Structure formats: C-alpha cells, structure tokens
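Below is how a single chain appears once it has passed through the pipeline. First comes the sequence as given, then the structure the pipeline wrote out for it. We keep one example in the README because the format questions we get most often are answered faster by looking than by reading.
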Amino acid sequence: MVQRIRRTVHSAIAPIVALIGAGGNGLGPEHHKREEPTGRRLFSLSLLALGIVYGDIGTSPLYAMRECFYGAHPVALTRPNILGVLSLIFWSLVIVVMIKYHIYVLRFDNRGEGGILALMGLVGMDKSRRAAVRSTLIVLGVFGAALLYGDGMITPAISVLSAVEGLEISTPFFKPYVIPLTIIILILLFFFQRRGTAGVGAVFGPIMLVWFSTLALMGIRGILWQPSVLLALNPMHAIRFFITNGMHGFLVLGAVFLVTTGGEALYADLGHFGEKPIQVDWFSIVGPSLVLHYFGQGALLIRDPGAAHNPFYLLAPKWALYPLVILATMATVIASQAIISGVFSLTRQAIQLGYLPRMEIIHTSRAEIGQVYIPSVNWALMFCTIALVIGFRSSTNLAGAYGLAVSTTMIITTILAYVVARDLLGWSVPFAATVTAAFLITDVAFLGANLAKIAEGGWFPLLIASIVFLIMTTWRRGRQILNERLRDGALSPEDFVKSLAGHPPVRVPGTAVFMHRSGGVIPPALLHSLKHYKALHKQVMLLTVMTDEVSHLDDDERLLAEDLGEGIFRITCRYGYMEEADIPALLERVSRELHVAIPPMDTTYFLGRETLIVTSRQSGMATWREKLFASMMRNAESAARFFRLPPNRVVELGAQIEF
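Resulting structure:
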C-alpha cells in the first residue's frame, strides 16, 4: 500500500518538478547568494524557522477541516465526500505550498530577501519595460502588500479564538468565557510586542516542534482507526467529489484553501533564514505532520460523523483535552506573533521604499536589524483584531473573512513571478507561461471559491486592503508632486557654487549637513539659512539618502561623494529597503574618502520641514487626497528622529508650499 501511494504521488508531481527545475538556479551572474548553512547551524536555523515561518499554516488544523463539513457551505458527511475533501487538502498542500512556494517562488529572492515587496523590486529592475506595464505591475505588488494587513488582523483573531474554543468541548460552562479569555490573550500578546522576539524566539522552535509532533501523533491515532482513509491520496477522489457535488463542491474550496494559508508567509521570511532551513522544515516535519493530521481528522469523521463540529479536539483522548488547549493556545500565540512581526517588517520596507510616511520604529534586537516594533501599527492591529473577535464571535464566522486576501495575494505573486522568470531567469515565453498557467488554474479556482465569502466577512480584508492601498498610493503620488514643486525654479548645486565664487558670503567654522530628497537641486533649507543668517559654514554637505528596490547593497555601491568646490560637497548615499541609514557613520566614511575633517561635535544638521497649504491649484490629485496627504505630512515622524541624528545638533527650517 505504502509503495503504491509513493509511486502515485511521485508520478503525479515528477513532471511538474522537472519542468520547474529545468529553469536553472539563481537570477543571473549578479544575483546575491548567501552561503548555505550545514551541520549544527542548519539545525539551529531550521528549529528557529519552525517557530517563525510555520506558525500560521501549522495552526490551520484547528479550523480548516471543520469548515469543510460544518462551515458556511458544508457538504454531507458521507465517506466519498470525506475522501474527496481529504484528497483536495492533500493536493492543495502539494501544488500550492510544496511545488509553488518551496520549489518555485523561493528561488526569486531579492539579494537574499523574499516577500511580495521583494518580488516587486525585482520586477522594477527592468527599466526598459513600457512605463504603463511597469506601473501596472508595481500597483499589483503594492495592492498585494496592502492585502497582508488584513491577514495580520484576522490571523491572530481566528487562531487564538479557535484554540480557546476547545474549552467548550469539555463542558458548556466555559462557553460564556471564550470571547473574554480570547480578548485577554490578544491584549497581552500586543502589549508584549514591544519586547520583540529576541528574548522568546529561542523557545518558539521547540514549542512548535512539540506542536507538530502532537499533530502527527493525533493523526496516526485516527488513521489506525480507518487505514483506508489513505486512499484519498489518489486525486480521482477529488475529481469524483466535484462531479458529485457540482457548484456546492466548488464552494467548499473556500474552506479547503484554509490549509494553505500561511504558505505565503514562508516566502516573506526567506531573508531571515534562507531557502534550505525552510525547505528542511517542510519536507521533514511540517508537511508530513499536517498530512497525517488531516487524514487523522478525516478518519475520525468516517468513524464518527458527529465529531464534525470540532474534529481537532475530538481526535485527541479525553485526558489530553486541557493540555492540548494550552499547547494550541501557545501555538496560536506564536503564529500571531510571527504574522504581527511580519506586518511590522512589511511596514518598515514600505516606508523605506517611499510608500508610507515615516513612523516611529523601535529596534527590539541589536543583533538582528529586521526585528522591529512600530507602536502605531501595533495598536491599530490590536484594535481591529479585538473588534473582529467581538463582531464575529466565533472562529467559524471568522473563517468567512479569512482566505480571500491570501488567495488574491497568491495570484499576484504568481503573476509577478512570471515576469521575474522571464526577465532574470531568461525563461522563454511558452515555458514561463506554461508554469504560470499551471499555478494560476489552482489560484483562480481558490479565489473564485473565496469570492462567495464576501458577504460572510470577506469584505473586511478587502476594505482594509483598499484603505491601506489608498494611503500608500496617495503618499507615493503626493511625494512625487511635492518633489516636482520643490524642483521648479530650484538652483542647481553647480550654479550655486558659481554664485559663491562671484559673491562669497561670510564663512563660519564647522560643517553643515543639509539633507534633501534630490541631489540635483540646492535644498530650500540651505537658501533659507543663507538668507536669514547671512553666513555659510566652512564646509557644506548636500546629503541625499536614497532607497533602491533591492534589499541590500554592497559597500562599493553605497556612496558617491563629489567635491563641487568652494567647500561644497554633494553626497549621495544609497541603501536597500532592508537597511538602516546611519548618517554619523556615513559622514565618517565621507571624511576618509574626501580627506576632510568632519568632527561630530562641530557638525550641524539642517532639515527642511514643509507645511502644505491645499489650494485650488491643479496638482494631479483630487482635493480630498491632497488633504489626506497634507495630514500624513503633518503627522509623519520627523527626519531627525527617523535618521537618529544627534538631537542637540539639528536645526529645522520650515517652509510653506501651496499644493
């Protein structure tokens, strides 16, 4: 039996794996590849990744199977239907999670980093593409990123709530306390976000190892009751399920899709762990444990159809119920911690790329720059997550809101991956289109089934995504218009140096650093300073900090320093979107390269702070978006705090600009 199953699975997926593998490895000769870990380091990274990467998909067994037979579109609890749903679950895990993400998408790293913004950055590297096509692809990427904010609100709510609901299995006494207890756990979870994962990250992996081991043992227990449940590995059972149930069977795909949610998260965590540890975890622990557990739940339903209201907890022995509730709660808290941290990381990337205004960012680890905490985002997530629990009141109701955002994100990922495969891997159009079409068939089917959830709650992640998308595009467009206004009639650095030579002002000792977004013009703060003080520092640094659409830059790509004469220097510094700008350290390097002294205690930073006045002047944006942009400008974190400049060495000069 086992050998026959193995041959069936291998014969089905081997052509697809061979097709994908034929594309080659890497993204060209300039592709950044990290050194693959081995031995003890591989084991350590794999254990850590188990807690961070697989928390979301690892807690799906709490509710996924139940929703197929007890959710909004349940099918009859017959043996053929159970085998059909199990077959759909198994092949969804194989096609979407294993082949698409672990074998295909993970190879598209942006200098070691993954995630939809990293993929969008790879798409943006081809400047030769038509502007309209490039803009459309970037808009898709931004909307895909916006969808993840809704996911970051729903995942903690549905995961923790489904874990706590296990208390109702033992006695109805706990039913009135499920929602209050869930809210308390969520409040504690968000209040502890400020501490970061550095201190508790070491225990995440071992706890999730216990969790997946428990899933596997529970699954084996069920399979031993009904070994024939393994027949569901045959995809014919899935085909017969659709033939028998028709449109009703198609709608069940919306519940089946819940087993894959979290698959997109493993790509986003690529930069933290690398490809190999993530794959080792899936093929050795996560994948087998999930398959065994889902089949165990299926066996339980064949044996006892009355267990459909909560097959996860009813699969366990009665004596293990309370320990299992505690373990499940710990696992869901870990899964929630991971998705919330992912939202923080995504927000930081969006700020660096110019899609969100500056916010207060607190680094929770000195060793890992990617571990950040953003207070404003944290409290917004907490408010929305608690509101979801109060509004939907059960994990079954929340399941109606879950899946639509993730399925849309997966489609966007597939489309962007096609472009990257064509541009950077050099795949031919027929080959890349064949691979993409194979994945899109599954993605579109899942999206179609999830569209039926819009009225049941699927509107919520779409609403959140639309709001975030509006904010991101308004900020991006507003910054472009503002930069154009600042460049209109502005003086070039070369002309400014010539004017200094002809009419030299009073020069005072010290160094002045004028930060500006564009290195092609003189910062307005410099002109205001010269106008008011009637003097200029002996050394003037015109500093522009730019963020590229790659995750990291090498040191030789970082800095461009030019001596324009008359003590004026133009400094252009470039960073990847996963890097932090360290201005004082940058000036030390400038000092060495230009052979000029820049004493920290004799250096003053001049920053411009624009106040926008919304007028009837045509800007290219609707008036209400102009007002939104002006509001974001007023509430953005100051550049001095964002770039961590010495507070006693900063001078801000304001200017009013009609918008």
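The longest helix spans residues 131-164.

See the next section for the split statistics.
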